[in-house]
Amino acid sequence: MINKIARSVADALSGIQDGATVLIGGFGTAGIPGELIDGLVEQGAKDLTVVNNNAGNGDTGLAALLKAGRVRKIICSFPRQADSQVFDGLYRSGKLELELVPQGNLAERIRAAGAGIGAFFCPTGYGTQLAGNRETREINGKQYVLEYPIHGDVALIKAERGDRWGNLVYRKAARNFGPVMAMASKKTIATVHDIAELGTLDPETVVTPGIFVHQVVRIERVATQAGGFKKAA
Fold first, then answer.
1. pLDDT digits (tens, 9 = 90+) for 12-33
2. So which domain of life are we looking at (predicted)?
3. If you average pLDDT over every residue of the chain, what do you get?
4. The model scores a pTM over 0.85
5. pLDDT digits over 85-124, tens only?
6. How confident is the model at residue 145, as a pLDDT?
7. How far apart are CA 122 and CA 114, in angstroms?
8. DSSP per residue over 24-45, as a string?
9. What whole-number distance in Å separates Cα of residue 80 and Cα of residue 78?
10. Quick one: which H or E segment has residue 92?
């Protein structure tokens, strides 16, 4: 019997190895798998490459993972914010490597990994330092930069509902990077607020099929306030 429901966050994260590339969902305060990030801090894997929309806020979540010294490199679109002091300190002291990627490129590089695309040409970044020394090509009179997929060893994502087969349904903006990260990783771990009985999820609402999901962990529902500060529901 296929049953992907994990007993706890710790059980779900137990197989993550040192040096892993970890794709972490979330955009702003929507869809951040906070319980999985906290669990990864406790789990102890180090020398990680983290792929995320930003580089953490305040001292919690991803910022706490950075502060614990577990991350070697971060690939993101928005590393600096008003409260990104943890990232700033580590980057300026040379303790953290940054690969800055325009947000559309980031999403497409992850999607390409899941779709089995070896590389693609994108116009964003041409003629800037972001293009680096990568190959460029003129296509139909427009200049493009060669981009490579971003594959993950593990994806940590947040969904709204799931079943024991791993089928996932998201809530509005919390969907963001979750679906493409699940497809791009060797292993996907998802938190959900509700576990649905098998067969009760409307197939038309399932965004991430269970074939892309390996572990599902149920978490309590917590209201998120502006700025990312949480309070009990």
1. 999 999 999 999 999 988 999 9
2. Bacteria
3. 94
4. yes
5. 999 999 999 999 999 999 999 999 999 999 999 999 999 9
6. 97
7. 17
8. E--BTTBS--HHHHHHHHHH--
9. 6
10. helix 85-92
pLDDT-derived band at 81, boundaries 50, 70, 90: confident
Output DSSP code: residue 174: G
Distance CA 124, CA 144 (A): 7
* Beta pairing partners, 54: 78
- Residue 176 and residue 25: Cα distance in Å, rounded? 7
Q: Are 120 and 112 in contact (CB under 8 A)?
A: yes
Q: Say how many CA atoms lie within 13 Å of 49 toward its Cβ.
A: 11
pLDDT of residue 232: 52
Residue holding tokens 């070896």?
A: 118
Place of tokens 């089995």: 116
Q: At the topology level of CATH, where does 9-117+149-218 sit?
A: Glutaconate Coenzyme A-transferase (3.40.1080)
**What is d(CA 171, CA 54) in angstroms, rounded to the nearest whole number?**
21
What is the pLDDT at residue 29? 83
Where does the chain show beta strands of DSSP type E? 21-24, 48-51, 71-76, 97-100, 120-122, 136-139, 142-147, 152-158, 161-162, 168-169, 185-192, 194-195, 215-218, 222-224, 230-232
